[in-house]
Predict the 3D structure of the following.
Amino acid sequence: MTSADDAGIDPRLLLGDFSSSLWIPRYRAGTWGPWTLSVILMTGARGYWGKTYGMAGTTILTGPSEGSDASWMSIVPAEIESQEIGIAAAYGHTAVLGMGMGWCAANVALNPAVERVTVVERDPHIIELIDTLGILDQLPPEARAKITVVEDDALAWRPDRRVDSVQADIWAKFVEPQKWDDVRRIQTNTGATSLYFWGQEMELYRLACRELGHEPERLDRATIIRLAESTGLPLVHPDWPDYADRIVAAAPWWTPKDGKWWRAE
Ligand SMILES: C[S@@+](CC[C@H](N)C(=O)[O-])C[C@H]1O[C@@H](n2cnc3c(N)ncnc32)[C@H](O)[C@@H]1O
C-alpha cells in the first residue's frame, strides 16, 4: 500500500478517519530537482483545528527551505483544513500563489464561482512535477481549462488582468516573521478584492497576543474580525460562529513553543 505504482496512489485511501469533500488527485513518487514526492506511513495526524485523526499514511512533498529540506505540502488533515476557507471563498479570476502539489489550485478551479485560475509558481521543477504526473489533467476538462500556470516570483508578480481573489500559500511554516510583509506586497501587486493566505488565523492570533500582551485563553469573533480589518487587507473570514474558538484551539499546535514568539515581526 505504501509504494506508488504506475497508476499512482490515491491519497484519500490513506486518510483514515478523516474525510473531506474536496477533490484529491492521484500522485506518484519521484524526484524533480531538489523536490521529492513520497508516500509515507503515518498512524495519526492533527487537523488544523486541533483534533487528531487516525491515518494510514500520506503523500508528501519535501524540498529546500532555509538551507535544509522541509515538508512543504502533504495530503493530511491540517493541510486540507487550512486551505478550505480560501478555496470556498475564491471567485472570478483567482490567483493561486504557490503550486506545491497542485491540490489547492485544482480545488479552486472546481469552485463554480471561479471563472479563471492563474497559478504563480517560482520553481520550474515544481511545474515539471505537476506536468509529469498529470495532476491538473486529472480534473474534469471544464475545470482544467480554467487554469493557467505562470513561472514567476509571487512576491513580484503583477497580473495582466484584474484579479478578484487571491489564495496565497508560498510558505513552509504556518507562522513566519515576514508573512505580513509578504502578504502586503501581494495585495499591492494584485489589487485583489478578496485575499486568503495560508496560516492567516495563526497570524491574526499573533496580532491578538500583541494587543493583549499575552496569549489569550479565549477570543471572540468580533475581535478577530476587527484585527483582520485593522490590517487594511481584504482578508476572507468565514461566517462560522466558532471561528475565534477554533483559532484559539489551533494556536498551541501551529505556533512556535517559545513563549515570546508573537512579539517578533
Ligand atoms: C506550501 S507549497 C503550496 C502547496 C499548495 N497550496 C498545494 O495545495 O499543494 C508552496 C509552493 O510555493 C512555491 N513558492 C515559494 N515561494 C514562492 C514565491 N516567492 N513565488 C512563487 N512560488 C513560491 C514553492 O516552490 C512551493 O511550490
About this structure: The mean pLDDT is 95. Residues 72-73, 83, 98-104, 120-123, 126, 153-155, 169-170 surround S-adenosylmethionine (CB under 6 Å). The first strand starts at residue 30 and ends at 32. Helices lie at 77-89, 103-110, 124-132, 141-144, 179-190, 200-212, 221-230, 243-254.
